[in-house]
Each structure stands twice: as structure tokens, then as C-alpha cells.
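As noted in the main text, all predictions were made from sequence alone. Below is one such record, for Lipid kinase BmrU.
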Amino acid sequence: MTVDLIVNPASGPVVGRLPRRDRVHAVSHQLRTLGATTIRATETVGHGDAAEAVRRALDAGSDRVVVWGGDGTLNEVASSLLDTGMRLGVVPGGSGNGFARGLGLPLGLHAAVHVAMLGSPRDIDTGLVNGRSFLNLAGIGFDAAVAERFNTSNLRRGLVPYLTSILHEWRTAAPQHFRIRLDESMPIEIDADLVVVCNGQQYGHGARVAPEASFDDGLFDVVAVPRITAARILGHGWRLFSGTLAQVPGVFTGRARRVEVSQANAVPIHLDGEVANAETARTFEVRPGSLRIMAGNA
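Prediction:
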């Protein structure tokens, strides 16, 4: 079996005693013990490296692609694999690993590689927004600002730096007046700090913004959160981790195959934690069963 291995050596925290420079060697060794006969490895340095590695894998007729990285690296790899039928194995290596947690993939290195090679293939939905793909979450407004600060402030990875980014952006966040349309229904208008279009359930670390979302139901879960005040954080912040965010007064939730979101000011969006250009209007569409992931018990 020929496996193309794509590793982001900069993603996430250090794993055990394994130096970042040894990630490729460690995963390659385990892949061979599980049946890989040929391994083509790529260490990413910058944006576009992972997508180029996928193109080479497809051109060469590889049997499988395995990626070690965070949700952003996974997004770049998966976006080049959509509708190809190529099996993708995921070794979660990010700070929050929201996609892997939501899909029920193991987070430990050895268990994840085992599933990547010997698990069962599962076809899952992906999302498309203004020509860009996402796998897990697409957030407009406050959480996009948090993602931008987290990605550009040279902070160390992990939950504490992410919470630091949240607190920093919270002090200056201003709600937007959003217009949201779900499928063919009448649009609703709402003042909110953020709107999240969810294919998966969580940001990571158990922060479940859409606990009922499913990767293979052909629908998005849409969540709009009103002004995040100190009183709301103190009274309801825990609900994000208990899966009861929808019970917070003023939170809007809905489900749809097609979602239109617009606002007067151009604001950024994050796609699986990677920030994209600011725009005033976006259309989200589900791409059913477009990605084949190695999942399940191995």
C-alpha cells in the first residue's frame, strides 16, 4: 500500500517527548508496521504545501493520504480531496482538534494512526461558502477575530492562549446586524456578536457550539450568539461546554442545506480556524458525502 503522509511540524503542542522534527519518522514507522509499503512524506512549511502534496498523491495514484496537523492543515488537505473517493486518515495535531473530537476520532498518536490505516471509511459532508470549503465550523464576527489573533500573535498553542485571545477580543468586540436566510424561508434579522455555520459540533476542547450537528445528515446547524456581556459569560459561559448553549436567552439556532448571511459591514470569517477575506454577504451550501474519512473502530 502506498501512503502519502503530510505533516505540519508547527501545529499544536509538543506530543509527549517527541520532538517536532521527528514527527515524520515516528508516524512513518507506525504506518509501515500497519501495512504501508511505500511512504511519500511531506513536511509543510507554508500555505499551499499541503494542497500541492495532495495533488501529487492523486497524480501518482496513491492508496491513501494521512495528515498530521490541526483543523487548518486538515482543511487544506481535505479541500483538495473532495469528491475523489481517496481515503483520508487523520492524526489530530492541533490545539483544539474540534473536527477530530466531533467525529469521535482518537486523539492519541498511536491510536489515531491505527484508525487511519485500519479503520472503516466514512463519507461525510463538507461545506462550501463563496467558493471556499470547510469541514467543521465557519464563524463570522467575534470568533473569526479570535482566530485571527490566535493565529497571528505568535502565542504558544493550547487552550490557555486561546482563552487569552478570546478575552482580548471580547473587550473591543461590537455586535453586527445580521440578516440570515435558511433555505427558502423568510430571512430573519438579528443583532449578534457571531454567527456560526456548523457542519460539526465543536470548536475543540469540548466547546460544543452545535451539539446536535452531524457530519452526514446533509444539513448545517446555524447558531447566532447575541452580545457577549460579562453577565452572560458568568451566568451562561458553562453552557458552551455542557451542550446547552441554545438555552441562553437570545441565542438563535436553525438547520438548513443552504444558508445566506449578510451584514452591512465587511467582516472576516474563519473556516476551520483559518481566517478568510472580509465580505458583506456569504452563501453556504452543503456538499453531501464529499469526503471519505477513515473512522470507526480499528
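The first helix runs from residue 23 to 33. The longest strand covers residues 274-295. These features were considered when defining construct boundaries for the mutagenesis experiments described in Section 2.9.
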